[in-house]
Every structure is written in C-alpha cells, then in structure tokens.
C-alpha cells in the first residue's frame, strides 16, 4: 500500500502543504479549527511527518544540547530526567555534554560547540566566562540556564544565597553559635555557581548575627556522601568542634550523619544538622533541610526552551525564580549546652526531698519518730 503524501493531505483538507506541515508539527500561524481538520485528514490517510523531512523543511537539527558539570549527582539526574521528557515529547533529541573538567570544558566551548549543529542549549549551574558567553551567543540559537542569569538567555534560578542564610539562621535561632559548613570545592577548575553562593549565604547569616567567621569551621565535601563524611571528620577533629553543621547538599548531610554516628555523637542532642535539596531520603533520615523542586525546575526551563524553538521571534528571554522553603525535621534542636541545664533543672524538680513521702506513705522525719 502506497503511503499518503503531504500533497494528498493538503488536497483533502483543502489547505496548502505549508499549512499541513505547520499543523502537524504544532507550529503557530494556523487556527485551532484548521489544525484539527488537518490532523483528522492525516490520520484518515495514514500520513505521518518524517522527522528528517521536517528538519530539512524547517532548517532545524531537531536536537538540543545539555551541558552538565556532573552526571552522577542526584540533582543533575533529576533535572536531566525532567527536561529530557519535555524535549522528547516535543520531538527533539538530546545531546548530553559532561563538562566535568577544565580540558573538556575548554574543548567544548572552543570548537565542539560550533561544530555540532543544535537548535538550542541548556546549561546547568555553570558560571560562564565572557568568552564562553560569546561562544554561546554566536550560535544564534536560544540558550537556557539553570542556576545562573545571563542577559539575553532564558534562565531559572533559586535564591541560593538567601536559602543558605535561612538554613543557618534556623540554627542561630536555636542558640547555636559554632555553626560549621560543608561546601563544594571553591577552587575547582570548572566554575560552579552553587558552592560560592551558598557559602556566601552562610557567611552573611553569621555576620548579621555578629558571630566572627572561623575558617576552621568551613570544610569541603564535593557534594557526595563520602565527601560529607570526610569533611565532618575534619570538623570534629578540632579542639573546639561545632555544635551544628550546615551541608550545602543533602548527600553531604547524609555523610555527616554517618560520621557523627561513628564518633558516638547523637543527632540532634549533641550536634544539629541541616541539609539542602530535600532529597527523597531526607525524610527517611529525619533531616531538616531546604526544599526545592528540582524536577519542576527541569520541566519549566525545558518548556521555556521548546517554546523559544517553536516560535523564536515571539518569545523574549524570561527569568524564572523558583521557590525554596525550610523543612524542619528531627535533626535540629537547641545546643547540648542549653539542653543539659534544662534537664538538670527538671531532674531537681522531680528529686525526692526530706518531706517527700516514700512508698510507705511516711516521711523520713516521721520514720525517725
């Protein structure tokens, strides 16, 4: 049986071939009623749009590039999974680039970016240099950013500085003064926005409270469980360890909890711990954390890119601000130094005195008689 052609669909629907193409590819410029009629005729004739022909007709590659600093971290896996679904449903292939070291990053932005033909690009939490921004602009395609804002590019961000400050302020409000932080590597060759912003929020909260900054209470954990373990061991090897720890990710917080357990310290009576992200396991570990919806961010920025690709001329770069919130669970409480006097006072109130009757109902004075 011979396949129907676009000309046959156009003749039966009484429209032009261009209208058939736009209707079946979901592009603008066609009334909903006409588009519905075209789709109905195409279904009746068994006509489907060839992805290759569609790309040739539109001048598109049918693919978007996604650049990630990590591919083995929970945050980036969640983000990529949500974005990929949006791109797939819109008919775009995804080209994944792991720019996890300085050499790969330089290679990509110097010539691989220009050699690979893509319709748009999505970059996650990368602090771009001026030459990198210029290279992206020279592509002449829509660019979307997660975790950073660049003029002329679409973006979605959370307030990393403010959210980190909120986490630390929660600990300060409980009475903690020696609050440590487990952050990412600020000296890594690949600029990464999150560690520097969350560290800035930590420091801002302490300075606002009039608490001097102590470099000995800042450790690096590489955003992994193992990194959180190592950083916590470093922090609690000091003569004056912290009474509370803020980890820039829940994964590092999980590592902190593991090391504290090995050291025989109780959470939260000995040490309070706060994470960041609201990882699915955070509730299991009863972890107080800053919550953000990573999958919602991935979907929102991918939809923004798809909208820009469908009708580029009518979509202005948008900056979306995603919300965060503090979720208080059982890993935080007042410092142990404040808990102990309270417990002592409670014990004193309940301690028997000379005038307290024993099980026989007689006081010590009555028994002497």
How would you portray this structure in words?
This protein has 369 residues and is α/β, with parallel strands linked by helices. It folds into 3 domains: 6-58, Orthogonal Bundle (434 Repressor (Amino-terminal Domain)); 63-157 and 295-322, Rossmann fold (3-Layer(aba) Sandwich), CATH 3.40.50.2300; 160-292 and 326-336, Response regulator (Rossmann fold). Helix content is 46%, strand content 14%. It contains 14 helices and 12 strands. The chain has helices spanning 6-13, 17-24, 32-45, 51-58, 74-89, 102-115, 130-138, 160-174, 193-208, 225-235, 250-262, 294-310, 336-350, 364-368; strands spanning 63-68, 93-98, 120-124, 143-146, 154-157, 179-183, 218-220, 244-247, 272-277, 288-291, 319-321, 325-327. The strands form 2 sheets. The chain has a 6-stranded parallel β-sheet with strand order 2-1-3-4-5-11, sandwiched between helices. The chain has a 6-stranded mixed β-sheet with strand order 7-6-8-9-10-12, with helices on both faces. Strand 1 (63-68), helix 5 (74-89) and strand 2 form a beta-alpha-beta unit. Helix 10 (225-235) crosses helix 11 (250-262). The model is unreliable at 342-348 and 352-369 (pLDDT under 50).
């Amino acid at each position: 049986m011979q396949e129907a052609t676009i000309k046959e669909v156009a003749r039966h629907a009484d429209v032009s071939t261009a209208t058939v193409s736009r209707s079946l590819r979901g592009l603008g410029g066609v009334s909903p009623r006409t588009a519905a009629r075209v789709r109905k005729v195409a279904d009746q004739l068994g006509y489907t749009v060839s992805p290759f022909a569609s790309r040739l007709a539109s001048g598109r590659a049918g693919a978007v590039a996604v650049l990630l600093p990590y591919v083995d971290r929970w945050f980036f896996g969640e983000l990529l999974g949500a974005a990929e679904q949006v791109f797939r449903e819109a008919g775009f292939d995804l080209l994944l680039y792991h720019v996890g070291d300085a050499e790969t990053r330089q290679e990509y932005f110097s010539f691989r970016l220009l050699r690979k033909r893509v319709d748009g690009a999505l970059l996650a939490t990368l602090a771009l240099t001026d030459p990198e921004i210029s290279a992206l602009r020279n592509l002449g395609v829509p660019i979307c950013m997660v975790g950073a804002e660049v003029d002329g590019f679409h973006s979605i961000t959370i307030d990393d500085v403010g959210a980190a400050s909120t986490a630390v302020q929660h600990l300060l409000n409980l009475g903690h003064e020696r609050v440590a932080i487990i952050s990412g590597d600020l000296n890594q060759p690949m600029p990464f926005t999150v560690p520097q912003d969350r560290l800035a929020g930590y420091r801002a909260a302490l300075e606002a409270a009039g608490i001097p900054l102590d470099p000995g209470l800042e450790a690096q954990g590489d955003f992994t469980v193992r990194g959180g373990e190592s950083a916590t061991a470093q922090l609690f090897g000091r003569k004056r360890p912290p009474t509370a720890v803020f980890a820039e990710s829940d994964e590092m917080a999980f590592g902190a909890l593991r090391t504290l357990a090995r050291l025989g310290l109780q959470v939260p009576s000995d040490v309070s711990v706060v994470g960041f992200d609201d990882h699915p396991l955070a509730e299991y570990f009863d972890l107080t954390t800053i919550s953000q919806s990573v999958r919602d961010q991935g979907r929102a920025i991918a939809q923004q890119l798809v909208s820009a690709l469908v009708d580029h001329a009518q979509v202005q770069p948008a900056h979306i601000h995603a919300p965060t919130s503090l979720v208080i669970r059982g890993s935080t409480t007042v410092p142990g130094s404040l808990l102990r006097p309270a417990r002592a006072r409670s014990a004193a109130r309940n301690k028997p005195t000379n005038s307290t009757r024993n099980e026989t109902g007689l006081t010590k004075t009555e028994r002497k008689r």
